[in-house]
Amino acid sequence: MSIWHIAWRNIRQRALASSLTSFSMALGVLLVTAVLLVHGLVSKSFSDNSDLGYNMIAGAKGGKLQLVLNTTFYLSEPVENIPYTFYQEFLSKPQQEEELALMAPGKRGDLKDGTFAKNTEFAIPVCLGDYFQNYRVVGTLPKFFESFKAEDGENLKYQFEEGRNFETWNDEHGYFEAVVGSVVAQQTGLKIGDKIAASHGGDPTDIHTDSPFTVVGILEPSGTPNDRAVFINMEGFYLMSGHAKVEEDEEVGANVSGDTASRRQPLPIDQREVTAVLIRTSDPFSPIIIRNRVNEGNVAQIVMPVMEITSLFDLIVKPIQTLLLVITTLICFVSGISILVSIYNSMNDRKRDIAVMRALGARRETVMGIVLWESIILSVGGGILGWMGAHVLLFLASPSIEAQTGVRIGLFDLAPLPRSLEVQIPAVIIDNSWLGPLCSLELVIVPALILLAVIVGFLPAYTAYRTDVAEALSSSP
């Protein structure tokens, strides 16, 4: 019979004590795994989503982190707006003319190439401040869903589960079309063709009932904050009450296609503001040029979302994670002590068995190895149960977590490596189809449990090693 089988038989003989000891280890590992998994996946989601296809955000001067949280994650409130003319600084004259084609020429202002047009691949304005129920309403342009590419660089990042992208103007709905995120559609039951009215500043009593938007598209789940947002045509956003510097409700008798049906004129340039501008630069040097020139002025500021989110995690979230890991690791260590106590207390009852084994020719090292194997089985066995339990619990809670944060947790998802370790591992290893998933701190748990088991099992194993055969046999009844 092998050493492993003997150790397993000894554990089965003390089934209740062994089960309770292993269960305490399972609870400790469950907590460690949960902390690693939740923090790792959430931080990775924040880091990944901090660059949703753009590398800069322009907004009003103030808190940089607040601007990122508000614009990218919809987690904060906008403080101030910036002039629409500042957004035009990132567009060429033909781009401006195309976007303002529905506006009367006299209200467009003096159109010319923007200062940063040559440095910009695309710029997308967003207007925030309204809500639909508990979800943020984002006023933007159709190019919001036409500019961002998926990881393959070919397909669009955002696909439609139903319907289509909203249009700047069409004969059926005018300026008032909307697209809703997957979570919004799931939680509210919105369908294609439904009409929605936004509330100003989240006030349920201040609803823009005079400007309802028709839902024309529902996004596929993307795992981003956009799953929890409602996107409306920015031209319609401007025409809602309270969204212009000076209220204007001018009607004209014909639209640009020559139809006789009347429509409201787009809001003039001098009455427009935007909350922020999402910018993707055309070359690696443009961010420095744009940031320095804009930040030196008094109109707006440029922030790098990745840098702000990284700073947030390094200064606030990472210390909290470290504290939780220390606490949960101490729990595992206490569980290891319980293994030591359990095995050590059983040594007096097992002296005769050990003496018999020695009398039959077993070496001291063999007896010591059996006790160490018992410690390893209890520690690793409980640890594996705890690891599996953490993944099952988080998988069951995944729908609720995704609804609140947009983070999906799969049953076999492993906690990703911290960025500080990722940069030290060649990308070819992380990106490899089968090596990538192995790059996780969770895989350190098993070796750590084995080491802990050897440490805590050494004292009872050494006691078994020093057992006097003659004394044990003579003192046995």
UniProtKB/TrEMBL annotation:
Transmembrane portions of the chain: 20-42, 323-345, 366-390, 443-465
Tree of life domain: Bacteria
Domain ABC3 transporter permease C-terminal, first and last residues per copy: 326-467
Membrane topology, from the record: Multi-pass membrane protein
Subcellular location: Cell membrane
Alphabetical list of PANTHER family matching this protein: ABC TRANSPORTER PERMEASE, ABC TRANSPORTER, MEMBRANE PROTEIN
Protein name as it appears in the record: ABC transporter permease
Species name: Blastopirellula marina
